[in-house]
Structure to design on (331 residues):
């Protein structure tokens, strides 16, 4: 779409965008510990965090600058830290029972900041296994959330990523079968895979609709509406953020060849060539992205001549999760 002479170039903001309740709770968990930690005379930090608290490098870097120490595995935490009661925070994506057992064996003071929606799926795995089900789990191989859920019962949870993976599964009709999925996968994203599963295993039971993350669905719906009015889109989010990458894919699909969607970590990654001849740029962000990063993109676009800012709002989110029990007495 070419811009007509004299036409005002505009930015169309998707709303909702950015932080979801689970991400906000996880970040606030680490922030609360940092804000309330007493000064120490030893060299130990105020808090350790296993893996990225959320999948956004800016959030992680900011918390690290304030004193949080991020580790990939619990074995990297010195024994002296456990003995001193230094809190260890589990990320929003959840962990497997093996990690919980390891923390207990090491005597660590754990703060579990897993998203309550993810924890719900963990509980469902345990319930279905007790009732004799095999579980087909749609998720991204190696993603922290998928690793944690599968870890609840590796022998009974069968991971598939794509529709083509259904052919690799083999269950007899007398085997009780249920489907679960990664919370950050939307209905649209899994429709083809679910249809293939139902053709192959007509008796498979579908997951509760409440397992679908509200934030994922809301952000994708908003992006689709914005794309109808835009001829290019920018999605702010990190490359390892499943929901941010999917937002970019949804935006490209919704643009329908009229333009291209780009994912950036921040405004520094914008390329002015993307916006040549563009009159309207849609902007959204993944569920782990601070709004100041979106504002930075808006500022950069305004310097490129996109002076008008409109917002497309699909739904007002009012979801809130309380802090983990271990932190409610702090503050």
């Amino acid at each position: 779409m070419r811009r007509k002479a004299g036409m005002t170039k505009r930015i169309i903001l998707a709303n909702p965008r950015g932080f979801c309740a689970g991400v906000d709770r996880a970040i606030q968990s680490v922030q609360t510990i940092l804000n309330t930690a007493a000064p120490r005379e030893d060299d130990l930090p105020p808090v350790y965090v296993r893996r990225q608290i959320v999948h956004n490098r800016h959030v992680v870097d900011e918390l690290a600058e304030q004193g949080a120490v991020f580790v990939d595995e619990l074995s990297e935490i010195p024994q002296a830290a456990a003995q001193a009661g230094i809190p260890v925070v589990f990320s929003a994506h959840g962990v497997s029972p093996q990690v919980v057992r390891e923390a207990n064996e090491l005597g660590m003071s754990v703060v579990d900041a897993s998203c309550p929606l993810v924890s719900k799926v963990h509980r469902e795995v345990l319930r279905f296994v007790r009732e004799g089900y095999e579980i087909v789990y749609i998720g991204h191989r190696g993603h922290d959330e998928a690793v944690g859920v599968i870890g609840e019962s590796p022998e009974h949870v069968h991971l598939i990523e794509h529709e083509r993976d259904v052919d690799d599964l083999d269950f007899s009709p007398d085997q009780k079968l249920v489907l679960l999925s990664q919370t950050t996968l939307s209905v649209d994203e899994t429709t083809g895979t679910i249809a293939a599963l139902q053709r192959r295993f007509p008796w498979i039971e579908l997951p509760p609709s409440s397992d679908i993350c509200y934030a994922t669905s809301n952000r994708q719906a908003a992006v689709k509406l914005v794309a109808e009015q835009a001829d290019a889109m920018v999605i702010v989010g990190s490359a390892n953020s499943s929901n941010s990458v999917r937002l970019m894919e949804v935006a490209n699909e919704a643009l329908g060849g009229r333009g291209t969607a780009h994912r950036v970590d921040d405004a520094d990654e914008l390329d002015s060539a993307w916006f040549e001849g563009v009159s309207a740029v849609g902007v959204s962000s993944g569920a782990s992205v601070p709004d100041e990063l979106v504002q930075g993109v808006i500022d950069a676009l305004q310097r490129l001549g996109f002076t008008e800012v409109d917002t497309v709002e699909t739904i007002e989110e009012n979801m809130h999760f309380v802090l983990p029990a271990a932190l409610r007495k702090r503050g």
